[in-house]
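Exercise 7. Given the components listed, write out the predicted structure of the assembled complex. Treat all entries as one system.
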Amino acid sequence: MSIAVLQQPGEAPGEAPGPGRPALWRGLMAAPDGRVGVGLTVAMLLLIVFGPLAAPYSPTAINLAPANQPPSFEHLLGADHLGRDVFSRFLWGGRSILAIPLMAVILTYATAGLLSLVATYRGGAVDLVVCRFFELMMSLPALLKILLLVAAFGPTTGVLIVAIAITNMPGASRVVRGAVLGEIRADYVQAAQARGEATLSVVVREILPNVLGPVAADFALRITWGIIALSTLSFLGLGVQPPEADWGLMIQESRSSLQKAPLITILPAMAIAALSIGLNLASDALVRHVTSQGNGRR
Amino acid sequence: MLRDHDELAIGGEPAGGRLELRDITVRHPGPGRDGPTVWNVTLTLEPGRILGLAGESGCGKSTTAKAAIGFRRGGEEVSGASVLSGLDLLGLAPDARRRLWGNRISYVSQSASLALNPSMRVGRQLAQPLRRHRGLKGAALAQRQVELFEMVGIPNPQAALKRYPFQFSGGQQQRIALAIALCCDPEILILDEPTTGLDVTTQARISALLRDIADRMRIAVLYVSHDLALLANLTDRLAVMYAGEIVEEGPTRAVIAAPRHPYTKILLGLSPRIDDPRLVPGIPGIPPPTAVLDHCAFAPRCPYAADACHTVHPAPAAAAHGGVVRCLRADELSTVSPEPVAFAHARDAGTETLLIVDQVRLHYRNAPRPSVDDVSFKLAAGEWLGIVGESGSGKSSILKMISGLVLPTEGYMRFGNIRLDSLALARPRELCRTIQLVFQNPDASLNPRHSIRQILMRPLVLFRGELGAREREAMILAILDRVRLPASVADRMPHHLSGGQRQRVAIARAFLARPQLLLCDEVTSALDVSVQATVLQMIADLSAETGAAVILVSHDLALVRTMADRIIVMKDGMVVEQAASDALFADPQSAYTRELIAAIPRLGAA
Amino acid sequence: MNWRLLQQVGMRLGANLLTLALISAVTFLLMNVKAPEDIARSVLGREVSAPQIAEFVARHELDRPVLARYAGWMADFVRGDFGKSIVTGRPVSADVVTRLGRSLLLAALGSLVGVTAGIAIGVFLARRIGSKTDFRLVTGLLVLASMPEFLIGIALYLVFVVWLGWFPTQAGMAFSFGDVWARAVTFVLPAATIALLLMPHIARVARAATMEAFASDYVDAARLRGLSERQVNWDHAFRNAALPLVSVIGINLVYAVSGVVVVDYLFGFPGLGALLVASIGSGDLFTTQAIVMLFALVIVAINVVVDLVMLWLNPRLRLAGR
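Answer.
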């Protein structure tokens, strides 16, 4: 009933958008909240990438000004308790908060995502073991898992990346598995198998293009969660360590002076929120687009 | 059984209500939906009579049925009147309607598995309307529940009442839905494709039950179905719908014997029948999505359309069979009917054996019984073999084994002189080329992310590596033309095509490999009859040209009859009977085959 | 209670016990990846003599094989003896137990408000799908769901403590010196943070589940049987919408339990979370592993309850295999 009824009798099928990435992008930009999300994300990315170029001072240089100096012409946002320039620290502070989650999610998909893709396609005992393993990993909440790993190995950048990657593995595995399972029994995959297509060709040509949409949406969502996890950790003093400039860490350090100088807390807080909200709005619009498309063709 | 709410009939006039639909029109305001989906439907349901409402998917028959009892979903605008003993259901307050629903008017929808609450025991679902409309409690309630389950033929009703819907088979679920619908002795019963999706024997039993209940309880029934043959056997009057309009209505026998509207004529000729293996050729195009009010909606597809048909919207007129017909040329065409044709295909004498399947067994792990059990048959080059069976009979599994999607647990298969003992992946490419598979659901058999060109290119790249890019492109355009699709389709994505068009692409893909054996798995069961004939014709023509043998798997015995030289009947994974088509129908050997044949609704037998 | 049901319940309990055992093993191993000398050094400082280290290692029995220590730790743990802190030397259980109670109360309060509000908003929206209110609120929920917990807390703190001044700045003090009222007040902002943390997730699922149930054929069918709106809503729609909701509530209760870590730290609430952060910071491994195990216990208990509720609600699970 779906598309057929929208055509006039005997008429050739109408003009419509092509396949692949452009369609995904169009779907993303079709929803108003998707547009806001993309706009916010792009703005924050520009700030994070080019912000440091505009920083007037080194973000870690101490005693540039008297401690807790209020905003002035030399120090637009004043100085913190160690006399560091808050404005410079702010401009630098987005790098770690974006880079660590990004690398973590790439690591997640390079390991758990790929493993699940192969295991689900193979099926049988391999699939069962991989499935149970990731299910077990879910039995502790993400924050506790990360805290445990940080307690054991210390809060170095490598440990943070691995820890965030690990917490994302069960979910990513589930997304990949669900998407692949949906495709694997589809007739067009069986048609390819019956043609005698090589396994790699079936996976790459038939399954992957259909899995990419949900995975792209999930990827963006997991970066949001990574940002939330990392900034929380830094806020607890167990994430990015001093003297780095990091938005989460800045909030942790300025927390005690929240009443006297709320701006030093509020500014990085707003930045984290904007980044996370932007990514989340965009990935949600993407998820909705992907699922509505899925319904349209089944 | 006395009804406490309606006046007792006096002087032999039997009790029972009439439902009169007057000019029912339904609109869905919104973008892209300018016309009404249902236009001026006028019908009368008489007590003890079954009125059939036939039509293809999207013609508005279900919408009409729901609108008739005053049920509408958000956004629908319904006008007209639906009158039950002086009460206009469309004008009633919602509360008053609710007192009628499930009480004097009952509705049964297509899928009982969706219409029964999955997390509530069926006994409670049956009790709810009895309590509400009849105030039954305690022992009286329990007694009535058992009575109803017995009436619809649920074995062991006491225990059955305590079970959940998923613990019943599809047929039993529909019986339970029927028991709930009948629980308050309704005057009006609306059935919306109540047996669609059920096996043919189950369908026959439920239809017989319905006929019996309508007669005994003097219920006025509206039976909505796409299956003209079924309605022909079951109903007293028949209405045919096209693009939201009733195009023809009249006494069932008269309409079937001498249809007046070209659409009815073609629809009748398109339905496969077991007494005649010929079919009317399919008609081009697809129905418009909404009613067409400035000309005859069927004219663009009608082989008899005159100039006036494209400019004048025909009004319903009295027809010779005692009903009405909505066609400008009804009288001129009264003796004209479309000529059925036999689907020609290459009938090699069948000397050379192409495929041998010998004592094959397939037992999936954890399955209680084998899916395929000790199946043997031979197929000659160019032969058409039909495999028929109900769901779960193992008919599709046989195709999967031949095409190398699964390996048989036991047994031996040979194609030409190659043993089929490996999965497709490990088979020689040439073997994969010669055995091609077409699936049931065209929505799923084409990768939604590939353009039609990419889809058709694949077999050429795999099997015809010697061809250059230009030759390939030429072959794609040629095959598209062959399946009557415009060349522009090559650049479209599957979801831009209709179901029938997609299935034609799937057939084109199979024939591009130049197969010697084509495996068709229920290839038309997702399609409307007018599209089905076209698709079958294409398979017949293409295989006749290439000399390919065809194995046609279907649940539809009549359909297989129109196509196959020989038929295998399967049940529970085993072969029940194997015979030449004509012989099978003339003299069925097994009780099961006889039951299957008896269950098929017959056109023209009335 | 039939045999099939008992079997199902037994299987779920067994699986959860196994999970708990695995968590304990992994936790213990992670807490002992460092060499005993390194553990000693991290507590005593860099400038310590070899005998001091040896004495520390011996006192805390860090020289015994890991498996033997794990067995001993587990045996003590189930009896309520969580060992002695390697930093303070005090018994861990003394610090931990009162804090556990407070944290659980906090998580329960926050969850109660968050889940109730979430369901209410979700059901409210499900009846208004596609309206402007729906779009705005759903986007609002999405924005809230993208906020890290500590930012929600800081926002509440800025508004209600710094700006409006409704709550004292040093909330934690009330537990040492305040009366019952003062103690109760300290729960408000942390619980509100947890509630706001859960609410958007619950609301989104409640909205989707309710919408799906109301769009289902069986709800149409129930209406067409003439049942009252109340019966249609409760027996047919909400009953089935509850299924996906229960599992999401379970996930979010677990989320709430781990959420106390952040609010404790942020509001100076003397709960288990604050102690966990502090003991990780000071390298107090015994306290850390005891707290993680207690959290795991609570979480597994939540999962067991959710599993049982699902069994009760979903006849398919209950009667599986029949």
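Discussion: Chain C touches chain B at residues 216-218, 220-228, 231, 235-236, 239-240, 243, 313-316, 319, 322 (CB under 8 Å). Chain C is about 80% helix and 0% strand.
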